[in-house]
Amino acid sequence: MDSGSIAWMLTCSALVLLMTPGLAFFYGGLVRGKNVVSTMMYSFISLGVVSVVWVLWGYSLAFGEGGNALIGSLSNFALSGVDSADEQVFAIFQMMFAIITPALITGAFCERFKFKTYLIFLVLWVTIVYAPVAHWVWAPEGWLAERGALDFAGGAVVHINAGVAAIAAAVLVGKRRNIENGILPHNVPYVLLGASILWFGWFGFNAGSGLAADGVAVSAFLVTNTCAATAMMVWVLLGMFHNGKASGVGAATGAIAGLATITPAAGFIGVGPSLILGVVTGIITFYVVFFKDKLRFDDALDVFAVHGVGGMVGLLGCGIFAADIGLIEGDSALLVDNIVLIVSTFVYALVVTFALLKVLDVIPGLGIRSAESEEDAGLDSSDHGEAGYQLN
Predict the structure, then answer these.
(1) Could you please report the per-residue DSSP string of 57-123?
(2) Which of 321, 311, 302, 310 is nearest to 345 (CA)?
(3) Residue among 161, 208, 181 nearest 352 (CA)
(4) What distance in Å separates the CA atoms of residue 334 and residue 354, rounded to the nearest whole number?
(5) How many Å apart are CA 100 and CA 44, to the nearest integer?
(6) Is 112 in contact with 375 (CB distance < 8 Å)?
(7) CB atoms within 10 A of CB 155
(8) Kindly report the CA angle at 319 between 285 and 155, in degrees rounded to 5?
(9) Cα–Cα distance for residue pair 368/388, rounded to 1 Å
(10) Contact 39, 214 (CB under 8 A)
């Protein structure tokens, strides 16, 4: 990389890092006040745990030299041999993706998941779920990369991976207590602040994924904003149609759905298709959330609906609209390859996450679910000995 691209990629890496605290505010505002510290810590602690895992072995398993079609190697353990500025910048940028992905899952099990178990889950999930999928899609020798599947910035690696893991987590941990009459977000300004930080950071997420300060970055930046804005407005309008109110939470959720959707396609499509994807994903994700209550699991903060479904819509949209090679301007090959990508990520993330959590749940002295008394009092007190708000 030239010095300009290095500077751009370091900036993008910092933007993506900022997304995780943004996610903490977004999720933290959506839960009850007695769980705000707990919910925000799920995201914040990922900055520490996953950074160490990534440096030691995560990067090597995802991108290490000498790997095969399924997994990397340990040849770059502790970033051994990752010496050039180009390699280190890439490792830094990819680290930020690895940090936020498991944090996304926590929206499914917040308010009832043991923090000490979550720390172990972070290490294991990044190692045996995230790193292999990243290798399949983004390493040159990965089997999905060799097939020709395209995931520009993580529609499958980040969003489907996390969204499907959220299903497994929500099913195994069970529903929250005392939610029969619904739960209102305790701090909507936190939700709007968090969504704004996420939107801001997403420009690094998507515009940086071309790994250069060039025309692809400019186009990715533009279509990212366009899709997010369109999906947000669709959510607001549909909310007004059904409820007669313009919900701040709905606007924030719609924007995040649009951002998740454009992520896999950002480097391959133009403004027109990004508008179409914004409308389509706005409608689909709105009604998935709208009818969620008919399902039997408590995905508390709609991780699957927003990220899992959004990532799928984006990958299909990439297969249809990608310039020169998509279904409209090329042939069906990319669309087929991206469907294979969707299905394989879905199955792998679901099965392995379910098995991982099941094992953690049966280990004596560990388990995944907090005690009923702890849930009733709030996990801020039981897990952290702190309160989000003090009246002095």
Answers:
(1) IIHHHHH-TT--SS---STTGGGTT--SHHHHHHHHHHHHHHHHHHHHHHHHHTTSB-HHHHHHHHH
(2) 311
(3) 161
(4) 30
(5) 9
(6) yes
(7) 33
(8) 50
(9) 23
(10) no
CA 178 – CA 168 distance, rounded (Å): 21
Core vs surface per residue 324-333: b (16+ CB within 10 A) or e:
ebbbeeeeee
Closest by Cα among 39, 181, 9, 171 to 103? 39
| Whole-number Å distance between alpha carbons of 269 and 283 | 20
For residue 25, the number of C-alpha atoms closer than 13 Å in the C-beta half-sphere is 17
How far the first Cα of the chain sits from its last, in Å, is 54
SS3 39: helix
Write the DSSP string, 31-59. S-GGGHHHHHHHHHHHHHHHHHHIIIIIH
pLDDT band at 392; cut points 50, 70, 90: low
Euclidean distance between CA atoms 261 and 282, whole angstroms: 9
Around Cβ 233, how many Cβ atoms within 10 Å? 17
Residue carrying structure tokens 């990044």 = 126
Q: Would residue 333 be called left, alpha or beta, if left means φ above 0 and alpha means ψ between -120 and 50 degrees?
A: alpha
pLDDT of residue 31: 96
CA dihedral sign of residues 176, 160, 312, 257? positive
Tokens of 358: 């099941």
Q: pLDDT tens for residues 3-47?
A: 999 999 999 999 999 999 999 999 999 999 999 999 999 999 999
Mean of pLDDT over the chain: 96
Q: Coil, helix or strand for 369?
A: strand
Residue 314: pLDDT band with limits 50, 70, 90: very high
Which letter does DSSP use for residue 384 in this model? I
Whether the Cβ atoms of residue 146 and residue 330 lie closer than 8 Å to each other: no
pLDDT tens string 354-381: 999 999 999 999 999 999 999 999 999 9
Split at pLDDT 50, 70, 90, the class of 179 is confident
pLDDT score of 263: 98
Question: Cα Rg for the chain, rounded, in angstroms?
Answer: 20
Q: Directed axis angle between helix 115-125 and helix 85-109, to 10°? A: 140
